[in-house]
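User: Can you recover a sequence for this backbone? Please restate the input before giving your answer.

Assistant: Of course. Working from this structure:
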């Protein structure tokens, strides 16, 4: 038997080599692709494990704080602390700390915004006329926010320069008396200016003095006014040597009566900035993110930082120590233009008359402009405060608390924040005078506001007001570094930002992210700029008898012991700890382990100060992404492995079927000579097995080099699988054709594979003959269509798997990265599938044309041109291609529906595109056999016939 098989293989060397090439391609492709799939699975698993190391694994929040949106989409919003002012008691915190498996439990207690005055300093030196005895520099500020999209013009500020001496009020016994002592040694009435402000006095050459009413505020009925509604007049003396004698005015604390002499004339413009205050447990926070190591100035915060007594104007002040962030995380700018005016008189005019006089001046001379960014002033001011140690810096009266944002879901899945009614009265305490508020508080609001009443420095509790003072400054960028692909919300340190989701929004923002505007009621909420200790928060809230005082903690971030990156065992461990926390405390518990940032699209309505409607992408956090990704990778690896195996087996089965069909006459002769069916089947299987063994040995040599070319790691141990795989696949693929050949009747095998002609019809043209040929030989046409259908169906299923995989994991940064990582493997699999299908089509069409070579030679002899014969072959190839593409596409889509349970638009388009490409491949494959036919002499073909 072996000798017969060997002689037959040698006798039909071309067919044997063609079958060997087919087995070799299938086996090598199988080994390379399965190794690519396995290697990609290992890389992805390791990548997911590495990229899922985060600051904490579990987030504990008060009951009922999970929004419906978070529950539906399994996400955590970036501003999850917004509106969470208490809800977890210290006793519950201790329960969480004592739970087995908890490594770190870091609480955060949100307290509210304190409105802190900062100053934009404008250098007006070059705007001064050094020869004038008296002049006014008018400064017209414009406040800008949200990348300059929101802006408003403020009332003008004035600098009055005179060569006359100026006298300034002095503090006596911690305050000012009814007759206030001035620096010229004289006493003047405290209420010289009817607006109630203590003003400097100009000393004229004749010795008389008149007040320069320095601050002019518009009266308001609501007792709150935006910072832009204030006009100020600053009196400055121009010395003979050209220097300037500025008033003893410290923007943060008027503690000196001595004037300052400077070579530069600088105007401070008040700038009100909301500073969000929160409390943490310093030791736990340090273990969680390395807070102490991030301190860049001053000292770290400690648990003993509660309150420090200080004095102001003879009164006791409770100073709350805080750790300040090194960045303001607020987008704000003040720009201004300068104009020089020549008024006849300034001193002695009351505020209303002075405003009218200065506002009516015409023909001023423009003298320059300037611009100041908020970030430029912030760090300098905080460092100055740290140097003062326990000196108060800003009042904690009142603290303004902003609620969460409610979203409406739009039909396209994007979110639209729901506007709410703003309430400027929350920025003042009852009984206080008119309070200035940040200008953007008049903008469209998305958060409800309320006031947290604490001891008021201007109210009845003046004896013990509360203030804050920084002891140190920390840089959030120096905190313990975690992967950006697995960041969980760290609202204590990370600024919520949003980028443009469409080109119009990106253009409006100048291709920069949108940041918090400085409006506590705005959409984006700034992170806490000030951190105090839990003990300090308890001191601040001790006079209150409400729920926040009883349960001051807003959220607790928990890290589980022994967890360092995602594994199935680590996930189970985290879930067990989370279940214990929920059972012990009854609080809402989110398992953030294995989470990743998940962009959400937000439609932000237009603002009241010029900001257009924006379409933004905001970084929420998707919960449990790592588990979903790992499961999707496992499913994809198994399906891809099976798909490659099926494609290779079907390809070989098709090739063996074509080879058996080519030998129909020979097999019929053997059957007539008495060969039993089992011996015929054994001969065919023997030939296929021998070819498979040879192909396996060759694949063993080719797998590693081919893997290196395709950047796939194929080790020799894995390459050894090529031999048994080739042998097994060849035998399985050849079993069916061998059995069919053995069972066929000898007479049937000797008959040509042409259907009987029931009624003769006249064929018109090349296309008609091509259709007739396909109908006359249905087995041959179906064989070619099956070959092509295998490739089309496999490629469609592969596309469906990839679409399903990407749809499963996309939407988070980790999922997007993983999807990009597997694209190389997917591309290799797709190319291999197409090549196998194209090779099978070419093989079948070659046999088809070779079987009909005598018929085609007769057509040539009767005058058919080579072009007409080529068109005939191409038309038949197109017919086979259309049939195979249609059937393969339908089967591929059906298989995709079974595997992924749904057919997306992308999968349907891919199926249609694959079918079209399959028809084109069949047409091109037909041209190669047609070209080979030209080399056979017509006479020889006719003689053979």
């Amino acid at each position: 038997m072996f000798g017969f098989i060997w002689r037959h293989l040698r006798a039909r060397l071309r067919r044997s080599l063609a079958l060997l090439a087919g087995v070799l391609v299938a086996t090598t492709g199988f080994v390379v692709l399965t190794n690519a799939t396995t290697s990609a699975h290992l890389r992805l698993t390791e990548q997911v494990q590495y990229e899922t190391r985060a600051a904490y694994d579990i987030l504990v929040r008060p009951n009922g704080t999970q929004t419906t949106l978070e529950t539906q989409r399994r996400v955590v919003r970036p501003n999850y602390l917004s509106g969470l002012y208490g809800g977890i008691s210290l006793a519950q915190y201790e329960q969480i700390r004592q739970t087995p498996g908890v490594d770190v439990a870091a609480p955060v207690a949100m307290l509210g915004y304190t409105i802190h005055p900062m100053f934009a300093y404008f250098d007006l030196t070059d705007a001064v006329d050094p020869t004038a005895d008296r002049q006014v520099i008018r400064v017209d500020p414009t406040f800008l926010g949200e990348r300059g999209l929101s802006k408003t013009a403020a009332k003008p500020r004035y600098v009055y320069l005179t060569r006359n001496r100026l006298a300034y009020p002095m503090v006596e016994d911690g305050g000012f008396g009814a007759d206030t002592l001035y620096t010229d040694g004289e006493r003047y009435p405290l209420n010289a200016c009817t607006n109630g402000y203590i003003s400097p006095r100009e000393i004229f050459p004749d010795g008389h003095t008149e007040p320069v009413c320095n601050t002019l505020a518009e009266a308001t009925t609501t007792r709150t006014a935006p910072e832009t509604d204030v006009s100020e007049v600053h009196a400055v003396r121009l010395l003979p040597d050209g220097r300037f004698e500025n008033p003893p005015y410290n923007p943060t604390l008027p503690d000196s009566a001595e004037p300052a002499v400077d070579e530069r004339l600088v105007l401070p413009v008040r700038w009100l900035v909301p500073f969000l205050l929160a409390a943490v447990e310093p030791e736990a926070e340090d273990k969680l993110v390395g807070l102490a190591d991030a301190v860049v100035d001053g000292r770290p915060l400690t648990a003993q930082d509660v309150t420090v007594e200080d004095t102001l104007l003879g009164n006791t002040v409770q100073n709350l120590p805080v750790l300040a962030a090194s960045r303001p995380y607020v987008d704000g700018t003040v720009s201004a233009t300068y104009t020089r005016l020549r008024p006849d008189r300034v001193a002695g005019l009351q505020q209303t008359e002075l405003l009218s006089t200065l506002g009516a001046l015409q023909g001023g001379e423009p003298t320059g402009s300037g611009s100041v960014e908020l970030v430029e002033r912030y760090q300098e001011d905080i460092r100055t405060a740290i140097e003062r140690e326990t000196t108060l810096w800003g009042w904690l009266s009142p603290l303004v608390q902003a609620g969460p944002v409610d979203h409406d879901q739009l039909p396209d899945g994007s979110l639209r924040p729901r506007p709410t009614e703003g309430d400027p009265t929350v920025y003042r305490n009852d009984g206080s005078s008119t309070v200035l508020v940040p200008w953007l508080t008049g903008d469209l609001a998305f958060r409800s506001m309320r006031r947290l009443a604490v001891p008021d420095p201007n109210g009845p509790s003046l004896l013990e007001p509360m203030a804050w003072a920084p002891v140190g400054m920390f840089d959030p960028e120096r905190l313990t570094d975690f992967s950006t692909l697995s960041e969980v919300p760290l609202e204590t340190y990370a600024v919520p930002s949003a980028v443009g989701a469409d080109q119009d929004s990106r253009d409006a923002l100048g291709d920069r992210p949108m940041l918090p505007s400085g409006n506590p009621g705005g959409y984006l909420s700034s992170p806490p700029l000030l951190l105090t200790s839990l003990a300090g928060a308890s001191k601040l809230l001790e006079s209150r008898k409400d729920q926040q005082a009883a349960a001051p903690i807003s959220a607790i971030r928990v890290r589980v012991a022994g967890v360092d990156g995602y594994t199935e065992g680590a996930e189970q461990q985290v879930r067990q700890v989370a279940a214990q926390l929920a059972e012990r405390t009854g609080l809402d518990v989110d398992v953030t382990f294995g989470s990743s940032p998940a962009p959400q699209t937000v439609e932000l309505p237009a603002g009241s100060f010029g900001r257009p409607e924006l379409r933004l992408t905001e970084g929420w956090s998707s919960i449990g992404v790592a588990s979903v990704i790992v499961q999707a990778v496992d499913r994809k690896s198994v399906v891809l492995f099976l798909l490659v195996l099926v494609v290779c087996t079907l390809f070989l089965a098709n090739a063996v079927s074509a080879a058996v069909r080519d030998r129909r006459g020979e097999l019929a002769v053997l059957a007539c000579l008495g060969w039993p069916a089992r011996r015929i089947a054994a001969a065919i299987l023997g030939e296929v097995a021998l070819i498979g063994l040879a192909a396996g040995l060759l694949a063993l040599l080719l797998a590693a080099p081919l893997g290196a070319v395709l950047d796939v790691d194929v080790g020799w141990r894995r390459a050894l699988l090529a031999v048994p795989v080739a042998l097994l696949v060849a035998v399985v693929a050849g079993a069916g054709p061998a059995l069919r050949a053995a069972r066929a009747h000898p007479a049937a095998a000797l008959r040509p594979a042409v259907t009987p002609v029931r009624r003769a019809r006249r064929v018109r043209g090349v296309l008609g003959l091509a259709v007739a040929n396909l109908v006359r030989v249905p087995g041959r046409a179906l064989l070619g269509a099956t070959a092509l259908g295998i490739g089309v169906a496999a490629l469609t299923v592969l596309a469906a798997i990839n679409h399903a995989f990407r749809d499963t994991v996309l939407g988070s940064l980790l999922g997007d990265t993983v999807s990009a990582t597997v694209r190389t493997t997917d591309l290799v699999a797709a190319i291999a599938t197409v090549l196998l299908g194209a090779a099978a089509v070419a093989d079948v069409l070659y046999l088809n044309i070779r079987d009909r070579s005598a018929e085609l030679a007769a057509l040539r002899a009767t005058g058919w041109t080579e072009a007409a014969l080529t068109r005939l072959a191409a038309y038949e190839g197109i017919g086979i291609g259309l049939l195979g593409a249609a059937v393969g596409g339908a089967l591929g889509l059906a298989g995709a529906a079974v595997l992924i349970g749904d057919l997306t638009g992308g999968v349907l388009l891919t199926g249609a595109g694959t079918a079209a490409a399959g028809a084109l491949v069949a047409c091109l494959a037909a041209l190669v056999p047609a070209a080979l036919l030209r080399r056979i002499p017509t006479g020889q073909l006719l003689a053979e016939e």
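That completes the design. DSSP finds 25 helices and 35 strands in the chain.
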